[in-house]
Write a structure and sequence with these properties.
3-stranded mixed beta sheet, about 25% strand, about 20% helix, about 375 residues, 5 domains, 15 strands, Helix Hairpins, alpha+beta, HSP40/DNAj peptide-binding domain, 4-stranded mixed beta sheet
């Protein structure tokens, strides 16, 4: 009775080449004599290698599927050893352990995906806060319009590589004490594609792509920050052979503002008040990004105070609402007084008992100047 080679690998009839290869790799990793010295494992490994040879050779597999045994006549079954029905070829062992070896990988496609591109976009603060639409100019690889990515001259087509016969790789065989060692490498003539272009496209030289400058509109959402990137899918480099384009990333660079600084969604600014305005209170007109705002300064406002204008900052990019505008107050002390101003200020100090402030730490010290020296 013919051996059930599918059953040896634990597969059902009609299994795909991929399933056969996976099953062989799985069993070979456990049963190979270099891994498992058990004599029974050695015999089992011989069976598995024999089944793998029978099912990966199209002619042998046809005999198996017809109910026969391709090794009955002795063809291909030597006295054991590598390259026979014993342990199997070294290429099979390499394939089992490393997923490569002498197993043909086939030609690779000339069409490959393109790379991503990055461009910087300088924006003013109000543009990042409220959003905008900008046209950017990029210089990237685009699809060749003369050959539409084929890389061939009009009326011509790629031909099969004569060096590798369309396989995309060439093999070399070396003999060692283990048997034949078969190694594969990409074909140097066709670069592994299995095809050559006898008459390249005169515009792209066979690449299927050319460099071109184009203008792309970029919609900048409200609330973006310095350093953030906007992704434009499919606007990057077109791949070799007219392959799908990568993505274009637009990196935001926020220019410094003359008045406002930004901390996330909050804006900050500084205002300087005369000493009298801080003491008596006033109304300050402040130019914000939203327009003019009236800011009430309470009497007695101290230097270093922070006034908060709600919802006058930047929008929250991934949430609702806006940040705040933080107004930092600095009180300015006059450095030059005329005689009349000095007289009035001294009279005020005397009325408030602040003309002779006590040193810091003294009992009962108080007054404006003493508090300044705490």
């Amino acid at each position: 009775m013919a051996t059930d080679y599918y059953g040896v690998l634990g597969l059902a009839r009609g299994a795909s080449d991929t399933d056969i290869k996976k099953a062989y790799r799985r069993l070979a990793r456990d049963l190979h004599p270099d891994v498992n010295p058990d004599p029974e494992a050695k015999e089992r490994f011989q069976e598995v290698s024999r089944a793998y040879q029978a099912l990966t050779d199209p002619e042998k597999r046809r005999i198996v599927d017809l109910g026969g045994d391709p090794f009955d006549s002795g063809a291909g079954a030597g006295a054991g050893g590598f390259g026979t029905a014993g342990f199997g070829g070294l290429g099979d062992i390499m394939d089992a352990f490393f997923g490569g070896g002498a197993t043909a990988r086939g030609p690779r496609s000339r069409v490959r995906a393109g790379g991503d591109a990055l461009i910087r976009l300088d924006l003013d603060l109000d543009e990042t806060v409220f959003g905008t639409t900008k046209d950017i100019t990029v210089d990237t690889a685009v699809l060749c319009d003369a050959c539409t990515g084929a890389g061939t001259a009009p009326g011509t087509h790629p031909t099969t590589c004569t060096t590798c016969s369309g396989r995309g790789e060439v093999q070399s065989v070396q003999r060692s004490f283990l048997g034949q060692v078969v190694s594969s490498r990409p074909c140097p003539t066709c670069a592994g594609t299995g095809q050559v272009i006898p008459e390249p496209c005169p515009k792209c030289g066979g690449e299927g792509r050319v460099r071109a400058r184009r203008t792309i509109p970029v919609k900048v959402p409200a609330g973006v920050e310095d350093g953030m990137r906007i992704r434009l899918t499919g606007h990057g480099e077109v791949g070799p052979g007219g392959g799908p384009a990568g993505d274009l990333y637009v990196e935001i660079a926020e220019r410094p503002h003359d008045v406002f600084t930004r901390d996330g969604e909050d804006l900050h600014c500084r205002v300087t008040l005369p000493m009298t305005a801080a003491a008596l209170g006033t109304t300050l007109t402040l130019e914000t990004l939203d327009g003019r705002e009236e800011v009430d300064i309470r009497p007695g406002t101290q230097s270093g105070s922070v006034l908060t204008l709600r919802a006058k900052g930047a929008p929250r990019l991934r949430a609702t609402g806006r940040g705040n505008l933080m107004v930092h107050v600095e009180v300015e002390t006059p450095t030059r007084l005329d005689a009349e101003q000095e007289k009035l200020l001294r009279e005020l100090a005397a009325l408030r008992g602040e003309d002779r402030p006590a040193a810091a730490g003294a009992e009962g010290h108080g007054g404006l100047f003493s508090r300044l020296f705490k």
